[in-house]
Amino acid sequence: MTKSELIAHLAAANPHLRLPDIELIVATIFTEITDALARGDRVELRGFGAFSTRTRDPRTGRNPRTGEAVEVTAKAVPYFKPGKELRERINKPAARASARATSAA
C-alpha cells in the first residue's frame, strides 16, 4: 500500500473528514516518526510495532563496477520490530491455509 492508497482508504472509511485533513494527519504521523528517529528516539505503536535506529559499524566495501576497496563509514539505519498483535494477524491466514492444505492431502 502506498501513501496515497492509505489516504484514499482512510477517506473512504471516514467520510466525515475532509481529504486535505486526512493528508495532513498522515503526513504529520510520518514526519513525527521520522523526526524522532533522527533524534535517536524510539517510537512504539502498541499492537503494531516499534521503530528505532541501529548503528552499522564502519567496514571495507567493494565498488561493484571496479572491484576497488572502498571505506564505508559508520551510520545509523532505521529498524522496525513488529509487535505481537501484528505478527499474529499476519500469520493467522497462513496457519489456516496450511491447515487446509494438510486436510486436503
TrEMBL record:
Keywords: DNA recombination, DNA-binding, Transcription, Transcription regulation, Translation regulation. InterPro entries: Hist_DNA-bd, Histone-like_DNA-bd_CS, IHF-like_DNA-bd_dom_sf, IHF_beta. The keyword Transcription regulation applies. Coiled coil: none annotated. The keyword Secreted does not apply. Heterodimer of an alpha and a beta chain. This protein is one of the two subunits of integration host factor, a specific DNA-binding protein that functions in genetic recombination as well as in transcriptional and translational control. Belongs to the bacterial histone-like protein family. This is Integration host factor subunit beta. It comes from Roseomonas nitratireducens.
